[in-house]
Amino acid sequence: MDCENCWYNEYDEEFDEYYCTRMLDEDQYARILQHPNRRCPYWRDGNEYTVARKQ
Q: What is the pTM of this model?
């Protein structure tokens, strides 16, 4: 999972850190942590042309 390039990863200037704007419940978050090769179901790459290529 490459969170650095995800659309939902945003920077918070007040806390000087990045965070995911998708609200994951504890079970979803635990599953992602337990299986590092498993991708987040909400992950989106930063390429805005991805959608255009599918049309």
A: 0.52
